[in-house]
Amino acid sequence: MSDAAPVSSPLYKANIRSGRIIIWTLLFIGGIMMISPLAFMFATSFKTADQVYDLRLIPAAPTLSNYIAVLADGRFMRWFFNSMLVATIVTVSNCFFDSLVGYTLAKFDFRGRQFVFIAILSTLMIPTEMLVIPWYLMSSQLGWLDSYWGIMFPGMMTAFGTFLMKQFFEGVPNDFLEAARVDGLNEFQIWWKVAMPLVTPALSALAIFTFLGNWTAFFWPLIVTTSKELYTLPVGLSSFAVEQQIQWEMIMTGAAIATIPTLIVFIVLQRYIVRGVMLAGLKG
Amino acid sequence: MAAIEQQGAASGRPNREGGLSMRTRRLIWVWSFLAVPILFYVIIRFYPTFQAFYLSLTNWDLVRPPKLVWFANYIKLYKDPQFWKVFKNTFLYLIVGTPISLLLAFTIAYFLDRVRFMHNFIRALYFLPFLTTAAAMAWVWRWFYQPPPIGIINDVLAMVGIPQQPFIRSTGQALYSIMVTSIWAGLGFQIIIFMAGLRAIPNTFYEAARIDGLGEWAILRKITLPLLKPTTVFLVVFSSIGFLRIFDQVYNMTTNDPGGPLGSTKPLVLMIYQTAFNSYAMGYAAAQTVVLFTILLIVSLLQLWILREKK
Q: Could you give the ipTM of this predicted complex?
């Protein structure tokens, strides 16, 4: 901007002010464009088939008939339930095991600590895509194909979560743990009752990301499930959309159903999510 | 550090219970905490990794037991024109997609960082797409790209007098149309990370620069960008890895001919999926996954190397 103008001149201030308004407006328009796919998706989910060509965001005659049709089908309920179940169990498992391992690596001194840590961390380098073929083989040998456990087992613990939790447990003062030891708590109780409550921000970030990651997961569930009853919501939606072909209002309704839970999670936990992304991004 | 000292003090204490020293009892706790996780990492992560390498040297097809063929799969891959096409597509996603998305993300973050009025709301608008399900949003975008009167983008183009575009129906535009979807989904994350990076730069740097009479542009070039280098490198790598592993969007936007039209959008992961789970050429697919692993490893090592070099 006008570097030459003296800082105190009214012209300079007016320039800054109008510059700010322009920037704000541009950012606002950009933001509206960013959510327009979501807006059109929801708008169309409330339209009948013959209204799909109408670009209005607020439908002329909003209807819930698509939702009723999609949910009456029953399969969506099942896929929704499957995704919810799988994502919840995997999240609980990650919160438990990643924290336990992170705590152990942060707060105990033992031979092999560094080795275990590096070994776990090194798994971050291995892409899922390389493991799916051995996982598929393992699942077919052990009868895990097309089962909930088959969908869940690869994600029950993650190196990323362990690393994140270790970072945070390192910040827990040893005095607290020592005091608990004097009080006669055993090591498990110290972790669960003393250390865990002190890292709830990290734990909630881990929970949110694990849940969302599993809610949206597509690649492995697509491979491991074969019967429609066991599809997760993204895989089910994909097969549903292929079936519907050009009935875009039905496809948008399905997509909306897959999106609504993440929206709710975002609206309720927005502050944690943004802070969590920053934490995860900067530490990871 | 404190943990180690504390541990040393504890083990030195002649505090014995049930014949076990404090140190031994603590070690029992440690390994019982780690037992299940170690088993998990060995069985679900390390063993499959080695198995993937091994399978890539076999002709396993899910029916007959695997037979060692050494590097036959890699030679086949090297001679396979489809692989080189897929390789080119994958890097096209990366080389075009990463700079565009980073430039957009930085510009938005740079200005959004100064906005106070409705800051959280605008940030939310940009961030929200990051949380959506790729498989679901791929269908929304697929609908957007339809020919008129169904496709919204073509409708809008018609309004301003631009001729109809084929988008995902043409070999020339399909890859870029899918790339837009992917950039859109990842932008919010990059903006948040850039903003965190901008906040981390101490204000004193800017104050000093202003006293020295540096202009807005000079401050950006000489202070903001150099100090933001670790953040930028992280995002370049993160975004590159994302593009190298692109699958959900491509699969869902081209279901009638996955990776089409004519293989023009097919990335490596989709080729792996088809080789393994449509053709059941597991050994050949395993070799492809090893190639993907190698590329990802090089990208990650490059990040470490760049960041170490400048410190």
A: 0.89
